[in-house]
Amino acid sequence: MTAIIEDAAGQFRVQAGDCLQIDLREVPEGGSVVFDKVLLLSSPEGRRIGTPYVAGARVRGTVLGAAKGPRTIALHFRKRKGSAVRRGHRQKYLQVRIEAIEG
Fold this sequence. Notes:
This protein is mostly beta strands. The chain is 0% helix and 70% strand.
């Protein structure tokens, strides 16, 4: 069974056993996360498309821990002034393993 879920500003295509990175939130490691904004459910019996969400559908996941994304560098350079500012950033994510898709 496959589902498309919405979380924060992103949409994810998930199956049972998949690992995905979502925005960081206060959930302890080993805790559970429930996604109730399911846009589409697909199974061998057929496909259910929500308007905008599928009624009664949920996706359950287990938190594996926090992770950091790739490093991004922002360089602000002023020509002929001898000035440059270099800033780095790493986005923090929460790793979640999808346990079950209920629909």
